[in-house]
Amino acid sequence: MNDDARGLIELRGEDSLKFLQGQVTCDLNALEPDQLLAGCHCTPKGRVIFLFSAQLLADDHLVLETHPSVVSIALASLKKYSVFFKTEVSDISAQSGDFPSPLNNLQRLQAGIPDITEATTDLFIPQMLNLDALNFISFKKGCYTGQEVVARAHYLGTVKRRMYRLLLPQGYLPQPGEVIHNSDEKALGTVVNAQIAENQVEMLAVLSSSASDCDSMLINGQTLAVKFLPLPYQVD
Q: Where are the beta strands (DSSP E) in the chain?
């Protein structure tokens, strides 16, 4: 499989837009045909199940692009609720050539945009992944699954971990979901994504604020020098 291949989920039926609007963080009522809108679907506890870019093909037809490893998880979660609506939710990843992604995996990472994979689903609330700064969340739309937790974190400022972009030497490529420790083996956070870039490794990781002055980290038993890189957006 192409490393940059994406998964696709299709929703068809007269209730598709109404159904999805009640499930995801973004305001799909603002989505116009031929545009993309980023969002995420959360558990009732506000943990991110999967991230997506949505495309509206018709009033009753949407396609969600996501990481291929979470397609089956996303389908199972959506179908728990879709049975109450006139919509069919299906995997159309085989048609990925008809819906080319505007960014490859490295470009997405360098833009500070995370990918949720099978290893990291149900680990983070949206703000830990900087999704508020990336406009994945509408704080003006109505209720959706997990909305109370996401809104509480936003209005009470209770986010103690955020996603950072780091540069590591080539040699070991951290894997999504691996726990990051400091030299005293105290847990600092979790790997979100990592990619090789020009003989080095770039990584997105959710870390506690205390990790921001670290110059080395322990990942999978290996001590790696790290350098914090700027994100191309402002995080509160």
A: 7-12, 36-42, 48-58, 61-66, 88-91, 161-169, 179-181, 187-197, 200-208, 216-219, 222-225, 227-229
